[in-house]
Amino acid sequence: MGNLQKRLVEHLISLSPKDKREIANRIVQVLGGDPTPQVTGLPPRRGAGDGGLDGRIPILIKERIIRQKLKSRSDGLEIPIDTIKEEFTWVGTQAGFNIKIEKDKFSRDTLNAFVENLRREHIFAGVIITAVKLAPDAQAEFQRHNDNDMDLCHLFLENLLSGDISCSNICFVAGDISENLRKNLREFLTSQT
Q: Which residues of 50-76 are buried (b: 16+ CB within 10 A; e: fewer)?
């Protein structure tokens, strides 16, 4: 990535927790989501970290289509037999969102807590944006969850700022994310001076 993006991320990491929350909220809004955590089955709002989700965003996700045919059994009943298992279609849903603008790596425990919060909310897609890499054990857990029942996407803040926004299993539907994010960050940084 370019030096400009690296310097900007370094600056964002040095901001106060309040300012980091404002940046995180702007990122969620740029991605078309609601930065207000919507948590079910819990007491009234408990603070900024309520539910472990920084918000929800609309996405398209790959849904597997399994075509079946009916096979007649000797007793006259028909049972479904899978014929095609590799066909996909894109469907709309929501993804939970977690943003960490910190110098510490996103840990395995943090990742698993995020996944459990997604499951509690009946969400099976999640997007994580971090200023630094995932810890090695978090990378292994990330892959394990993607190999099972979750669709997780990890983006570096630097990549997001440079316009490199890609997830193989999730498609964002919010329009020109990079330009909107740059505009929002420019407004935020201008308001600080």
A: bbbbbbbbebbbeeeeeeeeeeeeeee
Contacts of 106 (CB under 8 A, 6+ apart): 100, 128, 130, 132, 133, 134, 135, 138
Q: Phi, psi (5° rounding) for residue 58?
A: -75, 140
Write the burial class of residue 138 (CB in 10 Å: 0-12 exposed, 13-18 middle, 19+ buried): buried
Q: How far is CA 33 from CA 56, 112, 167, 178, in A?
A: 5, 22, 17, 15
State whether the Cα torsion 15-21-24-29 is positive or negative: negative
Strand, helix or coil for residue 38: coil
pTM above threshold 0.90: no
134 beta partners: 106
98-134 residue pLDDT tens: 889 999 888 999 999 999 988 888 889 999 999 998 9
- Identify which of 136, 145, 144, 131 has the alpha carbon closest to the alpha carbon of residue 98: 131
DSSP summary character for residue 49: T
